[in-house]
Amino acid sequence: MKAITVKLALALSCAAIVGACTDTTGTEAVESQQIAWREGDVNDALVEAQESGKPVLLYWGAEWCPPCAEMKQTLFKDPAFIAKTRDFVPVYLDGDTQGAQKWGDRFSISGYPTVIALSPDGNEITRISSATMASELPDLLTLAAGRTRTIDAVLADAKSDPKSLSDEDWTILGGFAWGNDPARFKERGSEADLLETLAANAPDDVLKRRFGLLALTRKADKDGDGYKLTAAQEKTLEAVLPGILASRDETIENRYELAYMGGPLVSALPEGDTRDAMAGNLEKALEATYADKSLTLLDRTYATYGEVLLAKGTTGLTDELKAKVRKRMAAIDKAAGDPIARKSVISYTAMVLDEIGDRDAATKVLLAEIEKSASPYYYMSIMAGRAAEDEHPEKAVEWARKAYEAAEGPATRVQWAVSYAMAVMSQTPEDEAAVEASADAVLAELAASPDGYYQRTQSAADRWGKALIRWSEEYDGSAVLDDVEAQMADVCSRQGDKSEACGGWLKSA
């Protein structure tokens, strides 16, 4: 078992002061500011949990992941959160560590980051939204630490008899990581249906509005870059949004939804006084969020993105707004001084600049970060996607290849190899040699990870395989497909209990 804690040697020698060797005040002070993560030892954590009676706090993340970096520089440094983790056996599971994807399968984890509270016997109590404010988490963790009722039981009652839910159940549901639990919501629309049920039955108006907005963002039909609302959905929006915007706390709690979907939803309302008033209140709320320096750089960047989306759907982008956005993004770039802070926010500043049409400024930001980042492949992948959008197929493939070659970690390298292969098939599909070379890259990474065909690795490989079949049918690539099938047989033979599922897409070829 490996506990990741920082320990300082005592500054005073034993000879200098009697009793100094037993004075651990300095060490304890430092340790009190750290989370004693067990790194990758999930089995050991579960054994310790059973022996101690403590629940487990499982964090699943990746080195390259921006939201993970956001958690590391905010939540994981928050004294109240750190103190609360002592009531748990905390375990950090990096997606690239040995067996990590298998654990991802067991707990149905798909997205980075995910934080799950498990009972001492290993049952899931809840998974916590990464949008939960640090100030709210200690109470939520206190509640989770004292519960034996599983999230499956809570969700089952929520579906069948929401009136039977306790106050604790509602608190758990309010902080649940909606949108990050695909195994429990496999049927299309099932999560949105449940959120509507919760909105109709929630015990207070704050939860009603929260669940109502979440349901609406999942139910509304997409229409290009915006939404197309039914008459009933218009009424829902008009019922929940004003109350959220009137409360600073609710605005912060729903900040991600307001930033990404608020503008498009309001823009989908019929033109008139109602829409104008709602747009004005949303703009003020987003402005206030950006101005709140107690929030993170990422939160403030999201808020600016929300202002841009709102303007694009209503008044249109003005030169004044574009200038304001450029100034803000430059300030955030400058303020993100340390590597973790930069990892959490810089890709989003480029996204905002792209949204106002300033491709040159966004490109400059990304290229600069490639030169200084410890995980440049993440930004290279973004460059590949932008090149594809700009209809530069060769550049898109080149960036995707560079990103794969620079990627680190077994699961990450599989995912980036798949991205490279997908770029080749979509951008230069007539280049059979390039398709074959990129397929070899995927096969090499899969072969390098025996017994690793789980979760994100399996999902990525299956996505690539299905795309390869489609490419073979359209571009007469049967010879390439036959070669891949032969090599996959060897790869799959080393995948343990996943050997049968491995390469399952070939059965449909």
Write the layout of secondary structure elements.
Blueprint: E1 3-4, H1 25-31, E2 37-39, H2 42-52, E3 56-61, H3 66-73, H4 79-84, E4 89-94, H5 100-106, E5 114-118, E6 124-128, H6 137-145, H7 151-160, H8 167-174, H9 190-201, H10 205-219, E7 221-223, E8 226-228, H11 231-246, H12 248-253, H13 255-267, H14 273-291, H15 297-313, H16 319-335, H17 339-355, H18 359-372, H19 376-389, H20 393-406, H21 410-427, H22 432-447, H23 455-475, H24 478-492
Parallel strand pairs: 2-4, 3-4
Antiparallel strand pairs: 1-2, 3-5, 5-6, 7-8
Which radius of gyration do the C-alpha atoms yield? 25 Å
Q: Walk across the major sheet and give the strand order.
A: 1-2-4-3-5-6
N- to C-terminal separation? 45 Å
Q: How large is the count of helical segments?
A: 24
Biggest sheet descriptor: 6 strands, mixed
Structural class: alpha/beta
What sort of overall outline do the alpha carbons produce when their principal axes are compared?
A: globular
Describe the fold and architecture.
Strand 7 and strand 8 form a beta hairpin. This protein has helices at residues 25-31, 42-52, 66-73, 79-84, 100-106, 137-145, 151-160, 167-174, 190-201, 205-219, 231-246, 248-253, 255-267, 273-291, 297-313, 319-335, 339-355, 359-372, 376-389, 393-406, 410-427, 432-447, 455-475, 478-492; strands at 3-4, 37-39, 56-61, 89-94, 114-118, 124-128, 221-223, 226-228. The chain is α/β, with parallel strands linked by helices and 509 residues long. Helix 14 packs antiparallel against helix 15. The strands form two sheets. The protein has a six-stranded mixed sheet, sandwiched between helices. The protein has a two-stranded antiparallel sheet with strand order 7-8. Mean pLDDT is 90; it is low at 1-31. The chain contains 24 helices and eight strands.
